[in-house]
Structures are given as structure tokens and as C-alpha cells.
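hey so u asked for the seq, here:
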Amino acid sequence: MGNLWIHNECVIREIVQNYPNNKIIILPQTVYYTSDELGEKEYRITNEILKKHSNLHIFVRERRSYNFIKQKFEFTGNSDVYLVPDMVLYGKNIRTKEKCTGHEKVINVCIREDCESEQENIDDFYEKIKQNYNIRKVSTVIKSPVVLRKRISELQKSWETFENAEITITDRLHAMLFSVLNGTPCIVLNNKTGKVFGVADWLDDTNMIVRANSLSEVLEKLKRTTIWEHKKYDREKLLNYFEKMADVIRKD
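ran it, C-alpha cells below
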């Protein structure tokens, strides 16, 4: 939700307006409106539409989004907001084989180059990191449409990419999540909406996430994180949040 990807915002508005008598569930989202006149305008439009619905349930995946909705959005009737993990974290640890020391000595680098990016001098970063490390540029985005019957296989290819590396460096939320579920630790940068660090809060006890505030800091962190004594991701610790979500969805 927000005005960075305004098409998606308009879809939410249209659904809420067109189904006033239906229970509506918005699965875990990040909420981000830019701190300018345009962001304020789009927020007000969305709030005016959403507050007229009396059975709207919005799930958000980080504390900042939860606080924003609590403070800025108006709810009526049974409508409410809930703080839960990202849906990807409902998945189990999915790696296909045990990761061993020295396995495929490559670092996955997945850095945004769109309106959510906060990074500068990306080309310079690539030149510096290639001097000392074997890197592989990867992406979670497939630019062409994928037909339904091929989607599972494409997803599995992505999982294998994140599994078969020592470390992932990323400012993409799902690159971080795919890495963790496949047993690969991450050095993560935040993005413009704050969702990367926000969702990373759910994973602090895995010892698989190291935060960096800039690409230059990534290089420094990398020098000190050659050996990772990390844990496997255990979704059991978060299941109560997903059960709460299921209860809200099932409730009449």
C-alpha cells in the first residue's frame, strides 16, 4: 500500500469500493506514502475509501506500517489492522541439501535499481567487491510473464540460486526471505519503504541476518562474516501469528 506503485494502490481502492458488503482481507503488506504533497494526497484518497468499509482487515508485516495505519487511518465497524510476519515466512526451511563449508564459493548480489532503491554508486560497489570475491548477480524478478504451469518450476530455480551460495547481499525483501528459508545467511540493506529491515526483525533469532546501512558498509561487514554459525529458520516460532491471521479470515 502506498504511492510508490500507484497502480497497486488503485486496485485496492477499486476492490474496496466495488465490494462494500463483502469481508475484505489484505494479506501482509508494507505501507509507505512519500513525505511530500503527492504522498499526502494519495494517503487521503485511500483513507476516505477504506474508512467507509466496515469489514476490512489489513495485515501488515512490520511495526512501522502497523503504527502508521493505527495513527493515520480511520476504521469503522469490524475493520482493523494486524501485525504479522510476511507470508513467505509461513514456509518451512526448504533447502534440498545440507550446506557445507566451502560449498559453491560464490556470493549472491541482488540489488534493486528501481524506485525503491536507496543505494548510490552501485557500479563502483560491483567493481570493488569483484576484486576480492566471486559474485553472482541475481534477481527475484522475472520480467516476462510466466504461465501458471511453469510457476512452481521457476520458483524452485530461484530457491536453488539462493541455496547455492555462501552469502546473499541484498536490499530486496524476497531475496532475503528466499535465502533464509534455504539456509543462506544475508547482509541486508534497507529499501526506501523500510520493509527489509522491518521484516528482518522477525528473523533476529536465526542469526542469519546482518544489517548494513550502505554499500561501503557491506564491504566492511563482509570482511568480518566469513564464518557464519547460523541457525535454521524455524517457522514454529511464528505459527501463532499465522494462526491468528487464519482466525480472522475464517470469522464471519
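Residues 90-223 form a domain with the Rossmann fold fold (CATH 3.40.50). The first helix runs from residue 6 to 18.
lmk if thats what u needed
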